[in-house]
Amino acid sequence: MNVLKRRFIDQIWVMLGREPKKPEVIAERAVKAHELKRMTNKADLQATKEHMRAHQEVSHKWRNRRWATLIAVNLLFVVSFYFDIQILEGSLSASRFIGFHLIDLNSALQVMLAHKHIINNLVIGTGTVLVLWILFGGRAFCSWVCPYHLLAEWAEKLHVWLAAKKLVTDQPIDRRMRTAFWLVFGVLAFATGYTVFEAISPTGILSRALIYGAGLALLWVLALLVFEVFFVRRAWCRYACPIGLTYGVVGIFSPLRVKYKLDGCFHEGDCRKVCLVPHVLDTVIKGRAVDVEVPIGPDCTRCGLCVDVCPTGSLTFDVKGLSKLL
How far, in Å, CA of 137 to CA of 250, rounded? Predict the structure, then answer.
């Protein structure tokens, strides 16, 4: 098994909650690149870093595109319902786009577990969504479509600001809890015949509130955000949400990913500071890259924040197989 395949399997385990660890096997060309970096004069390297940072233009290109797309998708639901123009009907849990049925993969799984049989209409709707998110990268749903993700991103900024003032401290949780929650909600649906998760999913609550009007369920969403601001940053998305894990599994098969290039990286760490799921970027830590080019794992949300902030262009969006043809 070559190093990239071994690395890919490790990334799947990391997605399921295992903590990243230093690789046991590294490609020979990566070993040479790491050795060359160790031989580089530290003073010269630091001077180069500072020079690049001083002359780097702050880019928010991918963040702005992502925010615009997320807001536009959710507003399209609202406009379609309000003006009854039947372009995008329903909500993010289940919808219909100009006649094509779209069913959220996790919602469909919950419904079929609750009903204890495969529902043909759900299979058709989920098939369309499955193909869509395989093409766009699985957890891209989280950062490019989910309304709670946007609120949590803003809440995280407030948390980081309060932490800098030493008013709050972050309390990380074992990431294996997300896999446990995924299993628990599945068992509850099967045992009770009721889609328990849909009742508390902030994604579904916010989507329905935007379209049909606010309800008391928004208090639950508010409580989650308060918890994330004062106690655990991005607690729901990182440690609890089954939707993220479901789409992470889809991301295993996606050709669209963020790719890391070792040679130009100064390991300054800015990318990990802005990453919404920093465990996926363990490969950028000095000495961790198993090859000179390493795809970031399937738990990556493809948000583009690391691509925006990287001063050397060592992190870029890539389509598997396509770059070799160009």
Answer: 7
Parallel/antiparallel/unpaired status of strands 256-261 and 100-103: unpaired
Backbone angles phi, psi at 287, to 5 degrees: 90, -5
Six token digits for residue 314: 């060592």
pLDDT in tens, 175-209: 999 999 999 999 999 999 999 999 999 999 999 99
| Spatial CA neighbour of 275 closest among 63, 15, 65, 59 | 63
The radius of gyration of the chain from alpha carbons, rounded to an integer in Å, stands at 21
What is the model's pTM? 0.89
Checking if the pLDDT of 325 tops 50, the result is no
* Full DSSP string of 104-171: -HHHHHHHHHHHTS--HHHHHHHHHHHHHHHHHTSTHHHHHT-HHHHHHHHHHHHHHHHHHTTS----
| CA distance linking residue 181 with residue 300, whole number of Å | 19
